[in-house]
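Why do we bother with holo predictions? Because pocket geometry can differ from the apo form. Keep that in mind while you read this record for 2-acetamido-2-deoxy-beta-D-glucopyranose.
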Amino acid sequence: MRFTLPAASLIALVAEVVANTEKVIFTAPSAITIPNIRPGLDDLSLDVLSPAGLRTLETNLAVQFPSDTAPRGVQSWYLLKGLEAGRRYEVRACWPATQPTEFWLDVHNLTHVFETPLLISSLADYSEQRQHPGLQAPRHAEPEATSQSVLLLQVHSAADYFTSNRTLMEHPPAVDVDIILDPFLLNILPQSLGPTALYITVLTAGSFFLSGAIYNWLYRIAEIPKPHTD
Ligand SMILES: *[C@@H]1O[C@H](CO)[C@@H](O)[C@H](O)[C@H]1NC(C)=O
Ligand SMILES: *[C@@H]1O[C@H](CO)[C@@H](O)[C@H](O)[C@H]1NC(C)=O
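The structure, written out:
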């Protein structure tokens, strides 16, 4: 019993050290009708995350050291599709602590991106990098315009360390990242944290009753009979 507590804290500490997380929490916008015209959203060649489809994207992202022209390093874009309007979601980026990196996650609605020159040009650049002429996968034509809640996720990644090795400073290696889309349960809690939250609740309730029992016990043994006054 004496070793339980330090061991538990050690495990928590190790878990903290081996992976870093950056996240953004947002509410899905109302559904919009996306006309089935070319070029459409699919032609941007972005990786897609959706609650019903791929929820964890394992990827590796190019990074740069922050510079005057790119203070947040390299940008990449993702499509969040098939969201449930009005529901809260969290997107997390998780990466190994052995690859010190700084991430910034931002979600934007389509209107906002298309009306903001800085965003649309960044999206266009990224999309262009991902196009491989002649390698375009044949797209299954969607029969009609679809109405759904979509958002664009913008990720910035910058290397966050210093090395005297010039080669490494100019070409920092790509970072292994998991990008995770997590719907909130009852709009309060990320779904994947459900079991942990349940455990903490049980633990809290348990310690509440336990401390109550200890308190009662202490109270009883401390209850010294009043001296008689006669
Ligand atoms: C889109 O995003 C902008 C900026 O965040 C916001 O002002 C606007 O209300 C949003 N539009 C919709 C339809 O959600
Ligand atoms: C710098 O880093 C590169 C890549 O890791 C390595 O190949 C090279 O040997 C290093 N140079 C020096 C001087 O340490």
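Residues 29, 109, 111-112 surround 2-acetamido-2-deoxy-beta-D-glucopyranose (ligand 1) (CB under 6 Å).
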